[in-house]
## 1
Amino acid sequence: MQVDSSAALYDWANTQIEFAVNAPRVELLFNDGKNDYNVFVDGQYLRTIATGSGTSSYPFDLQSGAHRILVTKRTGPNFGSGRFLGIRLPQGGQLTDLAPRPTRRIEFIGDSYTVGYGNEGPALDCGGVYRPYENSYLSFAPIAAKALQAESHSIAISGFGAVRNYGDANTTSAMPMPFYYGRTVMERSDLNWNFQSWVPHLVVIKLGTNDHSTEPQPSAEVFIQGIHGLINQVTTAYGYLPIILLADSSLPQLVSRMQTATQQQRSRGNDQVHFVQVTHPPQSQLGCDWHPLVSGHQAMATELVMAIRPILGW
């Protein structure tokens, strides 16, 4: 998120805005039209905001007393950036202090699974309509982080891979997911992220489905080198820290390549790289375009949490 005196600019999935108020009515001000948002009051879901174009106000009423408001961006960066212009308290009231943020932090680097693509979809075929059915707050990544009492960042783009994006006619793409790592806003090459402003305790990388789900696939050597390159980006940013290479059970070839990448990292002396496999959800837990529904994400998150606990001692 890029913040200045007039607005906050963002596009990554599950970007969150949190504040506390003692006020009977709050208006959220957005300049957007591309993205949808969840609104929670005191930890309870209140409503979804589907923004319209231009600058608009989205009001809601509160019971008397102090309240904690959490707004989460449902949609990933593929839909475009949004601007949050602040809040208005039209019936008076005041901002109050927030409780301390979690001290544990996990960064997730991924694709549509991390974004939560189609996880609230009505069927496998969503008729080309995706925006209402994407809820990044309920992808496996924030679900797992919340279970571990950790704050999370999701650096993820639907359709992108470690070296090859979905449907590319070539075995590699010019701008796969690692190309965008380090950007504050995906679509802005001029806004570099300050890695020291938020240092995670763990980085989880779930990439490779888009590299391997269509032909022509990258060779094992090219893909694994791409994973090594991304790990190097992470360690350059943060120093050596635990990294999980995560794969689900849907693509055995990808599982094998991620295992090899892990073994090679360890043979080079980086014993902080771990491989974790989770079970791909059955068809009954799949939504748009065969992507996991929220129930599928919850199952994957449960397995991931069990793997993370012994690694971090959490």
Note: Helices lie at 112-115, 140-147, 177-180, 209-212, 220-238, 252-267, 294-312.
## 2
Amino acid sequence: MSLTSQLPALQVVVPMLTAPMVMLLRGSSLAWAAATAASVMAFCIAIALTLGVHDAGVLTYAMGGWPAPFGIELRIDAFNVLLLLITTGASSVALLSGRFSLARDLPEDRQPLFYAAWMVALTGLSGIAVTGDAFNVFVFMEISSLAGYILVAAGPDRRALTATIKYLVMGTIGATFYLIGVGLVYMMTGTLNFADMEVRLAEVTDRAPILLAAGFITVGLALKAAVFPLHFWLPNAYHHAPHMVTVFLAACATKVALYVLLRFDFVVFQGNLVGHMAQYAGFLAPLAILGILVGSAIAVVEGHLKRLLAYSSVAQIGYILLGASFGDMAGLSAAFTHMFNHALAKGGLFLVLAAFALRTSGLRLRDVAGLAHRMPLTCAALLILGASLVGIPGTAGFISKWLLLSAAFQQGPLGMVAVVVVVLSSLAAVVYVWKIVEQLYFGEPEDVSDKAATRTQASPFKSEAPAMLLLGIWVVALANIYFGLFPGFTVSLSESAAAGLMSHLP
């Protein structure tokens, strides 16, 4: 058996085995190096799986040699690899770029434990993406959540503990709802394998438990994904977590929950519940629209940069749900493309905030006034990332918003409502991104010493971000330009993922 055939299992095994090893290492540098190497290896495995899916279509792996549905099956298709690229890529960039930031935020003796928790979180998120078993989704969901609570609470700000408790309570409620729903489906079908569930549900005559299961699963995963109005745990968690943890979680955590939600709705329920797509769209489309409008509106008036971007994420989650609620190839392709492009833009913006935090006393708008004079390269990257978030042509964000608008135009009169909402949200993004740019380039620092430093500093690059962090910022910023000018890879992968889900519809 070749090593290539083991890649689906190695995607989970590599970070899982690294976690205890990192915890036993002495010294923060060794722990960081081991965790970073494992994360980069996981990213390389995700790339290899992407190539394998391109050639073979679907990759499967039977754990322990037991075939599905009797054993646990790992199943990799275009949708899975899209999520794996986002998850492992975000983890790798955050760890490679964030050594200095994490060393400042964390006591040295706790850093090995922190990196071990990071590896456990990566294990859980990757496991959710590769497993074809509904109960194992729950297991990996809890693994990633428990590690995520540790990561959020690890920072120096004691308010992170309050944010973590809220995150824990809401995450636990969401997981419980999901487990109840899976239990109901298992009661009616006797299987936990996604593909087998789809087949056996067709033979079930009593639909009431299945409808109830769909409700529990949808609400539980909506909590995990911070879908409006179940999003209120997200701003505090992003605000008080260590900056690199925010980079990691903002890029992938909510998208993993959305992946599971769409997998259930399009693979398990849609072909077996009459009118499910109409119910799904009727329930989630209004929430998506409200999330877009409310998230954008709050971001416009928010004064703290991390909370501003957190509420922007609530709006971006609404974009993904809105595209999926159309229930056709165009809408799903737009939603999946936006998953990837939003991870690029928002992950890069939180990297920029991590760089600002190293050079300022806070991350409110007034704290970054005039910072462009001291950090010109970092602020130039923010312009690119902000343009992608707005959807300026030539950036990745424009591609997914254009696809979403094109899909909305195909929906008839109701689609025009979606068009208006997306345009209004983009205009709001112009406002809140410009607020940041205005302070960076035209604002006057309130602190006298900061004013003096801005005026008398000999080199404008003296206060730039550390080299590795600056490199990470620019790699992500340039990736936003590359995928905006050459979107073929992300669009084709998203179309393959959408075709895979649409193939399950009757």
Note: The radius of gyration is 22 Å.
